[in-house]
Fold this sequence. Notes:
The structure holds 2 protein chains of 2 kinds. Helices cover about 75% and strands about 0% of the residues of chain A. Chain A is an all-alpha fold. Chain A has one domain (about 10-149). In chain A, helix 1 (about 10-30) runs antiparallel to helix 2 (about 35-50), helix 1 runs antiparallel to helix 5 and helix 4 (about 75-100) packs antiparallel against helix 5. Chain B has a single domain (about 30-135), classed as 3-Layer(aba) Sandwich (Glutaredoxin), CATH 3.40.30. Chain B has 5 helices and 4 strands. Chain B has a 4-stranded mixed sheet with strand order 2-1-3-4, sandwiched between helices. The radius of gyration of chain B is 18 Å and the shape is elongated. The chains are: A mainly alpha, B alpha+beta. The interface between A and B is medium-sized, with 37 and 32 residues. Chain B: It comes from Pseudonocardia hydrocarbonoxydans. Chain B: This is Thioredoxin domain-containing protein. Chain B: Pfam families: Thioredoxin. Chain A: Keywords: Membrane, Transmembrane, Transmembrane helix. Chain A: This is Membrane protein.
Amino acid sequence: MSVSDPQLDPRGVRFAAALTTVVLAIVLLTGSGWLLAAQAVVFALAAFAGPRFAPYPLLFRTFVAPRLSPPTEREDAAPVRFSQLVGFVFALVGTIGYLTGLAALGVVATAFALVAAFLNAAFGFCLGCEMYALIHRFRTDRTTQGASA
Amino acid sequence: MDPIGLLVLVAALLLATAAGLLLRRRDGRIRRGAATGGWALAGAAPGAEDRVLLLQLSSPVCTPCRRTAELIDDLRARRPGVVHAEIDVAQRPDVARTLGVLRTPTVVAFDRAGAELLRLSGLPRRADLDAALDPVLGPR
C-alpha cells in the first residue's frame, strides 16, 4: 500500500459502499456467481491499484461530486484499500462457491461482504478496519505463545 | 429469484442495522476502568505540569484513529496538563492485552499516578471528553 496515495472524499467512499451493497444484494437474490466475480474485480482494482482507479469512485467523481459542495474533510486511502482487500477475499471465496456448485459457501461469503459494505454505507463504520486490530492481536497472541512455549 | 438468498439478504440487513445502531450508541461513550501503570505502558513519565495521560490505541489502517488524534491535539492546545501518547496495537499487542482493548481507536485516560480515570472507544465526543476531564484539569 503506497503512502503517496492521494486522500479521498469520505462521501465517495460511502457512495462506493452503497453501490457495493446493491450489487451484493442482487447477487444474493439471483445467485449469480458471475456478477459476484465482477464485484470481486471491482474490489481488486480498489485494493491493488488504488481507489482512484476503481469504477465506483470514478462514477462518484464524474456524476456525483460535481453536484456536491467541495469536501470539508478528507480520508486516508490506506484504510479504504485494506477494507477493499477484505471485500475481495470474501467476494473471491463466494465466487468460487457459486461457480463450483457450493451455493451455501457463495451465500455466506456474499452475506459477510454485504454486511461490511452496508455498515460502511449506512453508518460510516469500517468493519475491515476494526477487523485489522482484532486479527492482528490474535495473530501476535499466537506467535508470542508459540515463542514462549 | 433465490428464496434462500432473499432470506439471507433480509437477515443480513437486519443484523447489520442492529449492529450499526449499537456501535453508534457505544462509540465515544465514556466508561470507567480500573487499569494502572499508564505512564509505564506509554514509556513516559509525567512532567511537573502534566496531569492527565491520554493513551490512544490505534491501527495504521483506521480513519477514526486519525480523527481521534486530531481531536486530542486540539484538546491539548486548549487545556494544559494533557499528554497524548499513541500506540499501534499491531506493534504493541501487549498494551492492548494489559488494558483489555479489542477495538481501535480506544483512548484510556490516566492520572498523574498512573491510575485509570476513564476510557472510551470510537471517535470521542469532544464536549463529553472535556467535561469528563474537568475534575482533574480544573475549570476551563
